[in-house]
User: Which sequence fits this backbone?
């Protein structure tokens, strides 16, 4: 564990943080201009920085134990550095002064599990840059620059949900977000409910998964249907006019948007859980982004009597699942389900122990 001062020999000028997130409903809808319902988690990424006079940026990752040096003229070879580099380049293009900096990153947001560690890094970087340069950069603009950084420089054609959640959500209420208009409001969790996040033991990376392929399929489907994006399709029967696999991709997006709208109307825990179960089935069968380990872990959660519902969370292809549970049974649920999962030859763990309703 090397602090900023241990690495760079002096204290930082500013320190900023941003949380990871777990998405409760609305998977793969954000890059289709749809609706999402994420909530921030307690785990945070911390970015510290100060000006230097070295003529180049020095970026130290405490998690990786390495320091990367770069200028804004060339994309760094190290993948983790591309996220920070992208934020700096996009901030500069937006008129923000970005002099050479010493940058230190520390994070307890789990990586590669679907909790948006990349967005937390991007938002924390831009928050620190805002504080250091005293620029009038609001939280929505931070999310937009962070998304642009990930698309243009890290190679992930992401929607804006993760960045908006990291920049604007909290751990007490879900953030209902219209990703087309960026209209948003906080939505309480259903009464007498709590969120549990478990890791499947299967890591995934978006740039190397089928994520970009799914986005391309949605774009092709929208073009065939004559709409700007799949957000503009309300009638699920429109999917039947398309060939495989486009018809199933469209069916997921339309039905998932509808599930988010129902959930955002503050439904009961039981109804919310049913929507989560339906979401997982759709992600597994129509969108094909689940894996056997996720399916098994979700099935074990759904079968537990103190669980209202469960689904994979994040883009899929591995990672984590999220469950809505009775608050008093969280420990029992996690212990029983993970033991059963282990008995079947898999290794999982608790990622986010509890996000509870206030009612």
Assistant:
């Amino acid at each position: 564990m090397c602090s900023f001062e241990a690495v760079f020999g002096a204290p930082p000028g500013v320190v900023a943080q941003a949380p990871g997130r777990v998405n409760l409903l609305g998977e793969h809808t954000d890059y289709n201009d749809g609706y999402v319902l994420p909530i921030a988690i307690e785990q945070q990424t911390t970015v510290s920085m100060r000006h230097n006079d070295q003529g180049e940026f020095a970026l130290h990752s405490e998690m990786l134990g390495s320091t990367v040096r770069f200028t804004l003229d060339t994309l760094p070879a190290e993948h983790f550095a591309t996220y920070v580099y992208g934020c700096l380049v996009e901030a500069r293009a937006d008129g923000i002064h970005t002099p050479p900096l010493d940058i230190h990153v520390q994070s307890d947001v789990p990586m590669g599990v679907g909790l948006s560690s990349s967005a937390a890094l991007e938002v924390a970087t831009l928050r620190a840059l805002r504080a250091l340069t005293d620029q009038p950069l609001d939280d929505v603009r931070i999310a937009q620059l962070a998304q642009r950084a990930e698309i243009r420089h890290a190679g992930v054609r992401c929607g804006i949900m993760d960045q908006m959640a990291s920049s604007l959500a909290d751990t007490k209420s879900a953030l209902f977000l219209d990703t087309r208009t960026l209209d948003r409001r906080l939505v309480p969790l259903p009464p007498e409910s709590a969120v549990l996040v478990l890791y499947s033991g299967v890591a995934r990376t978006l740039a190397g998964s089928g994520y970009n392929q799914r986005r391309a399929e949605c774009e092709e489907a929208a073009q065939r249907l004559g709409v700007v994006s799949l957000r503009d399709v309300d009638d699920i029967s429109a999917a039947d006019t398309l060939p495989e696999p486009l018809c199933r991709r469209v069916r997921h997006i339309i039905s998932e948007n509808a599930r988010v709208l129902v959930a955002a109307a503050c439904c009961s825990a039981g109804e919310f859980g049913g929507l989560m179960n339906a979401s997982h089935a759709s992600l597994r069968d129509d969108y094909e982004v689940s894996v056997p380990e996720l399916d098994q872990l979700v099935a074990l959660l759904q079968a537990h009597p103190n669980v209202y519902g469960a689904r994979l969370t994040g883009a899929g292809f591995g990672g984590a699942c999220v469950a809505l549970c009775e608050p008093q049974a969280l420990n029992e649920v996690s212990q029983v389900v993970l033991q059963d999962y282990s008995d079947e030859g898999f290794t999982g763990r608790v990622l986010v122990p509890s996000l509870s309703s206030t009612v």
Remarks:
- The first strand starts at residue 14 and ends at 25.
